[in-house]
Each structure stands twice: as structure tokens, then as C-alpha cells.
User: Fold this.
Amino acid sequence: MGSCFSDLKGAKQAVGGVNAQTGTTNNNNDAVDFFYTAQGFQPLFTHVELSLSACNLLDLDIASKSDPMVVVYAKKGDGRLEELGRTEVIPNSLNPEWIEKISIAFHFEMVQPLVFHVYDIDTKYHRVPTKTLKLSDQDFLGEASCTLSEIVTKPSRSLTVKLQNKRGISGQRKQGAITIHAEETVAARSAVEIIFRCSHLDNKDILSKSDPFLRISRIVESGGSVPICKTEVKDNNLNPKWRPLCLNFQQFGSKDNPLLIECFDFNSSGNHALIGKLQKSVADLEKLYQERKGANFVMRSTRNGQEKVLKGQLFVDQYCEKEQFSFIDYVSSGFELNFMVAVDFTASNGNPQQPDSLHYMDLSGRLNSYQKAIMEVGEVIQFYDSDKRFPAWGFGGKIPGGIVSHCFNLNGSLTSSEVVGVEGIMEAYGSALRSVSLSGPTLFGPVINLAAQMAAASLSSYNSSKYYVLLIITDGVVTDLQETINAVVKASDLPLSILIVGVGSTDFKSMEVLDADNGCRLESSTGRIATRDIVQFVPMREIQSGQISVVQALLEELPNQFLTFMRSRDIKPLVSQFPHPSTIL
Amino acid sequence: MSQTIEITILSAENLQENKKAIKGNTFVTVQCDGSNNEVSTTKLDSEGGSYPTWNEKVVIDLPLHARFVTIEVKYKTRGSSSNSVGIARVPVSDFLGGYVHENQLQFLSYRLWDNRVMRNGVVNISVKVKMSQQNSCSSSMSSTMNGVPVTGVPVAGNGSCSRVATGIPAVWLNYQRHI
Assistant:
């Protein structure tokens, strides 16, 4: 029940502006956040700010209009709601545009369901800080829910959802709609590219010269340092010039934050000798570049503990600030991730009728490893695929007709491999288990080649805005390792990422060579080397015990792989064809 | 009759000379196995050492029957001579007629083999296949003979092709009868 007159004084108070939170972390627990920040653990994921507005809200006050406020929740895995933040109260408005933004970290690898509750705040609470309001005392105006990925993939990143009663039952009256707009913090996009050079470095090697490299760390509040990046090693060189180093603003915070730059002599034993260090902020480095001066390294002398100024100097040969488009920039402008699945039908899985088979479909509804992997990966990626038509294949099985195929359509069709939605994949998987008999061996080559053909075909179309993701679920070590490597190398220059999940209890050590995370680029049998690392491999067993699911481990790298491909070819997000929507529908 | 290929020699990694880092000025030569005398050379990189970068574009005309493009990384020794660091033989089928169509930029990397057939680093290139003469004929209809579009192979003798005949245009047969 509202009162007759709205609170004018409360309405005139400033919201936002200078008093807005400058922190970008979730303020669920300030103490925890400050602890982590002091240790240097800045979150590395993108931060997104949600701006909210609504229209046609219910009018619950008698003489004036409702005074609405929104509370934003994240829905956790067990269904429980965790509050992320609240907007301010806007008095006397059925079409409010709230100024206060809710900050949330965008995790590509998770489905992030959000719930919005709109309340009408009683006048007597208007001057109380919104955080202390007890929601059970307020009038409920409506609820809306969506996922964060739904918002960021829309053109102009705005999503409008109708408000409903709690528990999703539409009320008899029209309750209006809420519009959520997501904006990335500017820091996500800015980067600086620097070329470092040194002169007159001290010689730390006995028989030859030093092999120097630089390590750049961020100095944290507790006084220690957290490494951000390092250059490559220049062998046998006391006046090295390294390749350009790209630092994202998110890594070093602000241009005035002091950075620790250390120069080491590389030793293959791992015990690198410190040649010298110095402390400069990014703004200082910019000045070094402009004045073309060098900065001397210092070294703590062992004798008297004082800092000795060395002859070695650091120069900045190039300093340039760049705008890098972020992953959200691309997906919101129309870029899509096309999902493809390949399922292992080799005999090592075990007879699907037996409960110990990896393909056993439990009647109680418990998902087997294959279904789990498909569900978890598919559920995240489906938001990024506009038509939700996914090609699905099986390999290593004997299809009706008697021949063993290493790339057959899971839906049983001879012409099209596509199924609709994650449910479509599950259905096709179930029906294939009944009609295909398990055989062998485990060959990835044909599936990877087919996926590569599809990715290449999209490259030649007018605006290549598709990126393909192939999920291969297998229970065994691949038989044709070199053939698979050849297929991967051939596809390494295409807009394709290959995610491999290993299920079951096999030892997958020999498969890890496909995932070139150790730095060894894959080499084909013809001498061609993979242009980029497109394979991510994770054995499902390893992840069961921890908190991270298989999906998160696999998908974490995907935005980076996508961005490296787009940036290397200078492909920019599509120019938006939609004007910024007005908030009043 | 040939295809025009734009190869940009980007960089090389992990080069060694006698198990030690390269000190001299490195450069790259490109030639295809069709025309033996045409060798394109890049500029020198004096600072890169074992990790040189050139970023230089080389345009070569690839005869139809060529099967390899040979990329050789060398470094200059005293005088005007040079030593070879390693060779990569790029099969033409890797960038022509594969997955990717013409006019697309492709980034490729190859293993370099030295003269003792040992691995010696990696060379990174990017390749763009320009629309070939033959295709541009049929698509642009700009070169016609008596108003009829030409879709066959031009007759040898206009100096642009090497010693291989790949087909006889039907029109030629008419001339033959009159000789």
C-alpha cells in the first residue's frame, strides 16, 4: 500500500555520478574482495555493467504512481537466488530508467541465469539506503528472468523481458516489461603494445653471453608482486630487442599503477639469474618512449643491501595504445558460434544394454558421460548459435547396411547431419544407439576433415561471421594419431576450435599431445606446422572431484581462440544495423 | 598460363647455425619448381638473430604444373656469399585447391630442414592466391574473340607460358585444317 504523495526530497538526491562504485568486483562480500585484491588476484574475466529500465509497470500507489526499484539475483545451481545488487528507487514513475548499474562478471564458460524482481518501495523507506530495505515489506511488481549470454548476444546488447508474477505465472493484469542493457567496462577493450629494448646488460653466463628476457609484474598492496607477462628469450645478446608485448588494461589496472620490470638471464635449469630490475608505471614507459631516453636497471647489492645503479638500460622503442574488440563486441554484432558434435561408437564403450557401458541409458534419468558432456557444452554454446541447428555425427560404428563408418549422421538421415537444439542431439544419440552397432577403431580424421570443410566454406561467404566449435566425445585413445594431427594442422588456419572430452577410465596421456598447451606446435607428416592451437582436451575423470565442471575447463579457452583468429585476420565486429533502442517501448 | 600467388614471408623461429644462435643477417629466397631461374629474395633482417621477421610480400607466377614452392632461409656471410639455414618445400596443394577458395588470406607455417636433414626452426608465411587468368576470363567476359567469350587455354606463343600444353582450343583445329 503506498501513500498519497511521493517523496520529492528523496527524488532530488543524486544517484550515480562521482559516488558510484569504482570497484568492478561483485560486492557480495567486501572483505573477501579486498583480501583477494590485496593478494593481487584481480579477476581476469570481463566485467559487464547492467543498466535497467522498465515500461508500463503496475500502478500500486493510490494518488501517485509506483516508486519502483529492481533487485538483481543470480540463480545458483541448486535453484537458490543470490543477490547481485539493487538499483535506486525512482519515485513516481511507471516507465523508470534506473541510473545505478549492477556489475557482473561475464563467464563465457557458464550459463549465468539472472532473475530480476521489481518492487514498489513505500515512501517511508525512500531515504533509507536501498541495501537495508527488507523486501518482504515492499510491494512486489513483477519478476523476469533470462541468462547473461542472451543479453550479450543481442544486437546492441539489450534484451526486453515481460514481467510476470513469482513462479512465472502471468498475472491477470499486464505487468509491463523490463529492459536490460549490458555494457562492458571500457578497460576490457584497451590494450597497449610495447617494444622493449635493452643495452649494456651485465653478462651472467661464463662461456657465452647472457640470454635475457623481461618479466613484468604488478605491484600489489601488500608489497609483493604478481607476474603479468614475460617476453621471449633472446639468446646470447647483451643488447636485445624483443618482439612487441601486448598488455591489456585489465592486467595492470591503471596507467599509474607501478609495475616491476625484471630482467633475467635464462638458464635451462630453471634457475634464472636476475640481471637487474626497475619500477615504472605504464605512464612512465610512455614518457620513456616519447623522450627516447633509457632507464637504468638497479640491483640490490649483496654487500651492503643498498641498490646499485647498473649500466644496463631499458628503452621503449614503441608504445602504442590500441582498442581491441572484445568477445562480447563480436557476438553482440552478429558473430555466431556454430556447435558440432561427434560421438564415439567404438566397441570399447561396452554393450549399451549393460549398466557398466559408457553408453548405458539409465531409465532413472541419470545422464551417462556422453549425455552429460553434450548437455553441458551444448547448453552454453546454444545461446551463441542463432538457428540452433547442430550437425551431429558418430564415428567408429557399424551403420545399418553393414559398413563401419567414421563419420555417419547421428540422426540416421543420409542427406543432412543437422539436428535442432540440444534436445535434438540427445534424441538422435538415443536413436543411433538402437540402430548402430559398436565397432572400431577410434579415428578422428574423417570427422575433423568434415568439420574443417564446413568451416572453410563459411570463410568464403560474403561476411564470414561464423566460428565453428567441434565437440568430440571419446572413450579411448585415438588410433590414427598422425592422421589426426595432419587433419588438425590442415584445419589450424580455419575458424574452428576442437574440444575433446575423454570419458571412461582409459589413460589419456598420449592424447595430450594434441592439445599443444606445452608450447609444442603440432607438425604434420608433410612438414606443415599448425598455425594456431585449436584443440582443447580434457579427461572427464580428472574434473569430477573438483568444483570446476568439464565444461568450464574446456570452454574457458574458447573466447581467446576466437579472438586470436579474428584479430590475426583483422576481422572486425559487424557494423551494427540497429539503432540504440529507446527505453520506452 | 599461370596463377599469381602473393606470399608474405612473415617470420622465422628457432633458427640455429651449428647448434648456436644465428648472428648474421638473414633473408629468404622463394622459388617454385616450375621456373628454375626466377628466385625472389626478401630484404635482410639484421636484428632478429634466431627469430627474424621480414613481413615482406613476394609475388610469384606459379605455372600450372608447379607442385612445390621452395622457401629457403639464408644468412649472409663475408662478402656476397651466403649460407643456407634451412629449406621448406611447400606443396602447392596446401594453399591451392584445398579447403580455402581464392582471394582468401591463409596463414601457414612450415618446418625448416637444414642440409643435414635435421630440423632447424619454423618459417611463418601468409599466402593469398589471386584470381587466375583463366578464371577471370570466364567471369569478366572482357577478353572475347569475335564477340564470343573465350573459355579455353590461350595458344602458346604469346610468351607467357612455359613448355607444357594443357589443352588445344577448339578454334585452333579450324586453323590446322587450312594449313
Q: What stands out?
A: The domain at 2-129 of chain B is CATH 2.60.40.150 (Immunoglobulin-like).
